[in-house]
């Protein structure tokens, strides 16, 4: 069990950490999971890649998550080690033959994804033509307000998807459709566009569909990316489902970010100040890569023990990570007290998604200490804390 503190400030006061510390909020993670499970009209699969830490998975499971979206035998094993017998789905459109075989034979996986006929043949061969599978056809969707496009690499075009459904059906498999609108999708309309496209594909194929998986993409809240609440997305999706009018279909979704982003913050320490440049102990090769890849700006809280910051004056600081690489710098400046200095701490909020999951050991820096805290990172009435 990780050590527990009431507040992040207590973490700083007691540990005076010169290494980065992940601060998990068990209540927030449980609530995010249970809200999602309550509101989504179908099965909620947690996308393990977003944050595979066992403590995170534990809180999501306690919040009611019972299904897991995985993309590799390693992720499937991770789920099964922690939750024996729990449902895992192999939702990657390109798998090695060995991965398909071990997923099926060792782990008894029944759900697979394809976006080509070749992959369908691989699955058929490596599962010894076991007919008792659900094969989901991944559909490419048009970009619609997401920070990441996940249809450039994967996804069949509508006509191809319809042909694939027919093939899946002809082999006696249950046929499903899935898509991913792109991660950090701030527009509910992205799901509507995708579901309307799905309707055309189903009609064109004439195949009886077993399930529709609306993927992930549900957004977190960041300084430069405010998104409507989860209820707005759920209303849109429920409306689309009514419009589809297919009561026999099982609906599924694969949220990653929306379940974990607000439930974790990261405490970093300033190792040196050079005028308006701050050198901290984590960066883009550690927990903060999404500042670059997703252009996300995380909310921050400065912390100091044994004294206060000057409340009057703030400055825009450039933040450098600990590695010797030139690129290890946050792309946007961060507003902090003008008198911040070496030894002070900066807490980054809403850092639960794609942070520790993507951290490297580059240059000998690797963030790994994890504690739990009782207080939420402040986000009140849609506002992050003011610095200064
Ligand atoms: C990454 C991924 C997810 C999770 O996406 P989020 O944007 O974190 O919700 C879900 N499904 C698939 C297939 C993915 O690749």
From TrEMBL:
Q: What is its EC number?
A: 4.1.1.17
**Catalytic site positions:** 324
Give the matching Pfam families. Orn_Arg_deC_N (PF02784), Orn_DAP_Arg_deC (PF00278)
Q: Reply yes or no: does the keyword Transmembrane helix apply.
A: no
**Which coenzyme or cofactor does it need?**
pyridoxal 5'-phosphate
User: Which Gene Ontology cellular component annotation is one that this UniProt entry carries?
Assistant: cytoplasm
Question: Can the keyword Lyase be found in this entry's annotation?
Answer: yes
**Gene Ontology molecular functions:** ornithine decarboxylase activity
Keywords associated with the record: Lyase, Pyridoxal phosphate
Q: In which pathway does it act?
A: Amine and polyamine biosynthesis; putrescine biosynthesis via L-ornithine pathway; putrescine from L-ornithine: step 1/1
Q: Which residues carry this modification: N6-(pyridoxal phosphate)lysine?
A: 49
Domain Orn/DAP/Arg decarboxylase 2 C-terminal: start-end pairs: 262-352
What InterPro entries does the record tag this protein with?
Answer: Ala_racemase/Decarboxylase_C (IPR009006), De-COase2_C (IPR022643), De-COase2_N (IPR022644), De-COase2_pyr-phos_BS (IPR022653), Orn/DAP/Arg_de-COase (IPR000183), Orn_de-COase (IPR002433), PLP-binding_barrel (IPR029066)
Q: Which domain of life is it from?
A: Bacteria
Gene Ontology process terms (BP): putrescine biosynthetic process from arginine, via ornithine
Show the catalytic activity: L-ornithine + H(+) = putrescine + CO2
Domain called Orn/DAP/Arg decarboxylase 2 N-terminal: residue spans: 32-261
Family under the similarity heading: Belongs to the Orn/Lys/Arg decarboxylase class-II family.
User: This chain belongs to which protein, by name?
Assistant: ornithine decarboxylase
Q: Which organism is it from?
A: Thalassospira marina
